[in-house]
């Protein structure tokens, strides 16, 4: 499925759109921060890595196969610049399983932007993409994302103990999920 006709997504305060080459510095402003990378189980990205990530995400792929991703820049409608990103990843095309994720610049945290963006993305997943099960994997210490999943109406399905290694630190994850028939998407 070609996703371009369904983009950008807009909410009361946000626009979720494909990244452009002009967004590299904005992405680097949050992806280069240790406090953002810490919950992604990898080191902070360099500017060059952000440039490559923007190039990959700007080339929208069809939503047809396992591993297909839709990465969108999150922007405020009243202010220029990217404040974060959202992602949908096709975990299983056959079983219609979709992973959702988000990363926001810490300067924009606590204002409901992540909830607003994730709600819009969930609507796309359940509506346009026909997702049966939407899930999020997150570090157990990432309390804001835990609360976000709960606000979205997702249930905690799993607690994976020390399932990932970031250098020398073991991390544990929660898996949150919701089924299409459990959530009403506007």
| Intertermini distance | 21 Å
CATH top level is: Alpha Beta
Q: Helices and strands: which structural class?
A: alpha+beta
Biggest sheet strand order reads 1-2-3-4-5-6-8-7
Helix content: 25-40%
Secondary-structure element order, N to C: EEHHHEEEHEHEE
Secondary structure tally, helices: 5
Low-confidence stretches: none
What is the number of domains? 1
In angstroms, what is the radius of gyration? 16 Å
β-strand amount:
25-35%
Molecular shape? globular
Task: Name the CATH architecture.
Answer: 3-Layer(aba) Sandwich
CATH topology: Aminopeptidase
CATH H-tier superfamily: Gcn5-related N-acetyltransferase (GNAT)
Question: Largest beta sheet, briefly?
Answer: 8 strands, mixed
The overall pLDDT, averaged over residues, is 93
Number of strands: 8
Task: Present the secondary structure layout.
Blueprint lengths: L8 E2 L3 E5 L5 H8 L2 H4 L9 H12 L10 E8 L5 E11 L4 E8 L8 H14 L6 E7 L3 H9 L3 E12 L2 E11 L7
Parallel strand pairs: 5-6
Antiparallel strand pairs: 1-2, 2-3, 3-4, 4-5, 6-8, 7-8
């Amino acid at each position: 499925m070609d996703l371009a006709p369904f983009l950008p997504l807009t909410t009361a305060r946000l626009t979720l759109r494909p990244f452009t080459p002009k967004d590299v510095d904005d992405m680097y402003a949050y992806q280069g921060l240790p406090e953002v990378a810490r919950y992604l189980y990898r080191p902070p990205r360099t500017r060059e890595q952000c440039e490559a990530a923007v190039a990959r995400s700007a080339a929208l792929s069809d939503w047809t196969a396992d591993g297909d991703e839709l990465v969108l820049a999150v922007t405020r409608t009243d202010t220029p610049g990217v404040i974060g990103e959202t992602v949908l990843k096709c975990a299983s095309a056959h079983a219609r399983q979709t992973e959702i994720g988000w990363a926001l610049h810490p300067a924009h945290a606590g204002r409901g932007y992540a909830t607003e963006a994730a709600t819009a993305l969930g609507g796309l997943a359940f509506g346009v993409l026909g997702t049966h099960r939407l899930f999020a994997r997150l570090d157990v210490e990432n309390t804001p994302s835990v609360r976000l999943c709960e606000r979205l109406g997702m249930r905690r399905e799993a607690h994976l103990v020390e399932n990932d290694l970031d250098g020398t630190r073991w991390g544990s994850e929660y898996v949150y999920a919701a089924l299409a028939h459990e959530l009403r998407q506007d």
